[in-house]
Each structure stands twice: as structure tokens, then as C-alpha cells.
Amino acid sequence: MQQPELIPHLFRTEYRKIIAVLCKRFGFEQIETAEDIASETFMTAAQTWGLQGIPQNPVAWLYTVAKNKASNFLKRQAVYNHKVVKDPAVNEDTSTMPAYEIDLSPQNINDSQLQMMFAICHPAIATEAQIGLSLRILCGFGIEEIADAFLSNKETINKRLFRAKEKLRSENIAIELPELAQIDERLGTVLATLYLLFSEGYYSVSNNKTLRKELCFEAMRLCYMLVENKHTNKPPVNALLSLMCFHASRFEARLDRNGELILYEEQDTSLWDADLISKGGYFLNCSASGNQLSKYHLEAAIAYWNTQKDDTKEKWEAVLQLYNRLLQIEYSPIAALNRTFALSKANGAPEAIIEAEKLQLTNNHFYFTLLGELYTGINNRKAIQHFQQALALAKTNTDKQVIQKKLDKIAH
Amino acid sequence: MEEYMLILRHQDGAKIASPEQMQIWMKQTMDWIGAISAKGKFVSGTGLLFDGSKVVWPHGVVTDGPFGEIKETIGGQMIVKADSFDEAVEFAKGCPVLQGEGNSVEVRRIAKNDGTHK
Amino acid sequence: MKDYLLVYRADYTTIPDRTPEEAAAMTKRWMDWIGSIAAQNKLTDRGQRLAASGKVVKNESTVTNGPYAEIKESIGGYSIIKANSYEEAIVLAKGCPVFTQGGNVEVREISPM
């Protein structure tokens, strides 16, 4: 009679579809109404299914109820406009008007979600707000889950989402695909947001492993929607999806049961997901058209090499050159450190030490960890000094444990 | 044995619960009904939408309802068999709707075995 | 932080033909060097390499095949880097692989707009 997690499952897969279609229909002015209708639909389901049992086709049931609620709302609004606002354009006889039909066909659901993605990832919306709105509206995450992912509380998240919605309204952002000529430019923001969404799950501080994984797969699902549409199926999109597949392939191997990080060198490679690795390869191939080399191309190629565990000269030379190019497109401290690590593998530790000391990332514990590693075996006294500096800068217990382990290794 | 109608009232039908809470709520409702059914005392149950309802008044007047004056809305109704009002009230006490602040279950005996209605 | 232009010059006519391996090794040296500057977050623009052939326009009627007939060295490419001072820019320029080809690097501060 009962199905254990039916409603959360349906909420996750259907809420976002209903809300995208309703928002598209109502516009962002009525986004709260769209959210209320979608949520109420699930409340009604919980009550009615409890009393009468689960319908044969729960999704169709949800769509019917959502459609009725939405068209009732539109009719009420039309009556109001006619009677109160005296809008002559509105016909009083609302019962027969097809204009109140809500289109929940797969095609319209897909189109609406894609348009919604571009609307939310609009350059006018702050990045943090984009992530919050994406989780809520594109992924159907509950407020509690979003709060959990950000290690925040419900009030803060609600406030953040409220402000973000205000911004969508005040900027008058339309829910539509950009002009074809602008797609490449707008895709840049969309991809950046999807990448952040993925990273939020992959590198999250939250210990909720299931939630983190879902964040990653949601980012991949949204990216895949872009690949499926002929206007948005561009090389950088494929490169980003490839990158996500390669990273996600190590998801099971890189976190232990408590959600604590397992270092790359210590991962059980039998837990790497071969299917995701081959998908990563597939999308990497798809990304190799045109002459645009995005940072996602370079990062995907690096991620590909990371799926090759053997420590070959060829691997590290390739990784070094990819980091050399990546840094020319976009500098980041972590890329600079990774580049130096690859340099030590390709050109040797002495050269890498000289290079590392030029970086001067002296407030970054990874910087001192890297120096400690480079000096290990060359000058252990210096190595210990650097590891101790790293230890003093490290904030999380995991980081401290990792560094302590390295220190212990030298001592023995 | 008489039949009683339990009317499930929600203080605020639009109040949003998390999907997990909804799931628990649905399962509790099923278990609650299951326990009543196990005694052979469940007759029927129906969920109602929280909006889109109409109230029909005399002289052909129809208004959007049902929430004219009252904030509460009816989320569902069910019919049970019970030997006494007390037993029906006991059934009602187990209703998961009561976990919500301000919610209530109204218990009404169905008028048919009282000699005036057949 | 100011921007500095690095101009790479060498006498490319005297550089012997390289084997593919030597050419690859040279490319790696350049990539590692520019990568090193980028890793220090001091690269503004990686710049361009210039092709060996060129023309010099002296006035409306005089155009010679170049790139620069009078001096042996020609410009092979340029980059723009960030540095706090000339001294720092010069330190960054010192690792340039053009020196292995007997060339030099001209360092010029870019005047702000």
C-alpha cells in the first residue's frame, strides 16, 4: 500500500517542471504564486493519497491538479482585472477560454526549463543568488536542503531567495532563450553557474554525502539539457559535461562513509565509475569541434589525465602543459599550485621548488603543504617547517589530519 | 453500528511542508486508515483540493469558496463505522492532520439510522 | 601593479634548423616559462608569435622586404606582464627561453591610458 519515498522522489523530479512551466506562463511577477501552486499540489497529493491510496499514474495526477489550480488562478485574476481594474480587454466569460489551459507537455516542460536556466543565470543576478535560485527552481531542492548544502539556516536562505526573486522582477528578466547571436555570450554565465553548482556538491563543506552527490548530478542533468538542445549544444558545454563526468566518476572513491575526504593517492580505484569515465571521454570528443578552447576544455583534459592513475612522464608533461595554458586563460591559486605539482613530476622537484617559492601564496595552507612535499627527501628540515606552517593555517580537521600524516611520515 | 463522518480541517492549506514531511504525513494517514480498516470500520475517504472550490448560494449565486469568513479549509473527509460517538472520536484522535497547529477534525454522525431517515 | 611589454628579439637567420624533438623541447621551454609567469598571476596577455617574413614600409613609395634589413635581430614575438617595478619585470624576463637562442628581451613599461 505504501511506497517508502514516493513524495520526495516526485517532488525532486516534478516540482521543478511544474514551476518552470507556471513561471514561464505567469512571468516572474507571479513567481510566488507559481511556487505556492506547485507546493500545494504536493500537499493535496499527500492528503488525498493518504486517504484514497496512490493513483495509478501519480505524475499525471499531479499535473492535472497543478493545471486546475493554475487555470483557476488565471481565471480569478482575469475576473479581478475585469471587475476591479475594469480592463476592457478581458472577457467576462472565463469558463470557455482556452487561454487558461496550462501546457504540461514534455516539449513545453523542457523548453520552459531551458529558458528558466538562462533567465536565472542572467548576468544581472549575483552569483550567489543564481546558485540559490538554481537549486530551488531548476532542481526543486527544499529550503532545508539548500540551507544544509550552504551550512546555513532556513531564514538566511529564505531571505537570500526573496532578494533574488525581487531582483528577477526589478531587472525585468524575461524567461526565454537569448537571441542566437547572443547564445555564446550568455552561455558563459550559465556554464559558470552550473560549474559552481557542481563544485558546491563536489567540494562542499557539508558532510551530507547523499546531498552532495545529488548537487553534482543535478548540475550534470542541467548541463545535459544544454547538450540536448541544438542551439546550446556548443563545444564548451560538452567540455564542461565531460569535466563533470570525469570528476563525478571518483565520487564514491573520494569520500568515506562519514563524508570525509580520501586523498587521490589513497583512493580505491575499483570504486571509480568506469561508465562515467567513458561518458567523460565521449563528451570530451564531442567538445573537440570548432576552434574555441575554453577553460572547460583544458580542465576536462586535466580531469581525463586524473582518471589515469599511472604516474607516467607522459601524463605529467601533458598535465603541466594543460595547466600552463589554463593559467593563461584564467589565473587561480589552486591552478597555480597544481601546475607547480605537475612541474615537479615532469621537470623534477628542484625546478618546482624554485617555481613554488615564486608563488608566495603565504596565506594558503595548500601552498605550504606543496612546499613541504617538494622538500621531502631533499631537505627534510625545511619540509617539516613548511608542513608546520601549513598545519597552522589549515582550518578543517580533515586538512589538519592530512598534513599531520605527512609530518609523521617524515619523522619515521 | 452508526456511520460517522470525520471532516479534516486545516488551519492553512497552503502552508508548506518539506517533501519528506509530506511523505511521513501520507504514510501516517495510510497507517491510520489501515488500523481503522483492520477493525472493519472504514467506509470511505476522499481528499479535497485546497482551492478552486465554489460555494453555491440560494437564488443561483455562486462564489469562490470555501473560505469566506473562516480561514480553515477542509482538506478531506472520511466515513467510519463506530458503535458510539466516543469510538468515532477515538478514531479521529489518531488523525495525522491533528499534528498541524490549529488543525482540527470535526466528527459528525451521519443521519440515516435514526428512525427519521432511511 | 603596472603592465610591461616584453619584446623578444633574436637573429633567427642564424638559428640552425631544428629536429622535431628540438622544436618540441623549445616549445615546452616557452610554455613552461609563460606558465610560470601566469602561475604567479603576473601575465596580462600572453601575446603573439610573429611569422619570420615581413615588410617594412618606409614611406609611401618605399617598401622593403623585412622584417628589418639593417639589423640582424628581428622581433619574434611579444607578451605583456604585470609587475610592481622595472626590477621585478626584469627578474621575470630573465628566465626567457629566447636567451638560449642568443636573443634578448626588451622590457618597456606601458604607459597608462
Automatic annotation (TrEMBL), chain A:
GO MF assignments: DNA-binding transcription factor activity
Name the UniProt record assigns to this protein: RNA polymerase subunit sigma
Residue stretches making up the DUF6596 domain: 186-287
InterPro entries: DUF6596 (IPR046531), RNA_pol_sigma70_r2 (IPR007627), RNA_pol_sigma_r2 (IPR013325), RNA_pol_sigma_r3/r4-like (IPR013324)
PANTHER family to which the protein is assigned, alphabetical: BLL6612 PROTEIN, BLL6612 PROTEIN-RELATED
Biological classification of the source: Bacteria, Pseudomonadati, Bacteroidota, Chitinophagia, Chitinophagales
Limits of the RNA polymerase sigma-70 region domain: 11-78
Organism the protein comes from: Niastella vici
Superkingdom of origin organism: Bacteria
SUPFAM superfamilies: Sigma2 domain of RNA polymerase sigma factors, Sigma3 and sigma4 domains of RNA polymerase sigma factors
GO BP, sorted A to Z: DNA-templated transcription initiation
Gene3D superfamilies named in the record: 1.10.1740.10
TrEMBL record, chain B:
Annotated organism of origin: Niastella vici
Pfam families associated with the record: YCII
Annotated family: Belongs to the YciI family.
YCII-related domain span: 4-109
Domain of life: Bacteria
Record-given protein name: Transcription initiation protein
UniProtKB/TrEMBL annotation, chain C:
One Pfam family recorded for the sequence: YCII
Domain YCII-related: 40-113
Record-linked InterPro entries: Dimeric_a/b-barrel (IPR011008), YCII (IPR005545)
Family: Belongs to the YciI family.
Protein's recorded name: Transcription initiation protein
Organism of provenance: Niastella vici
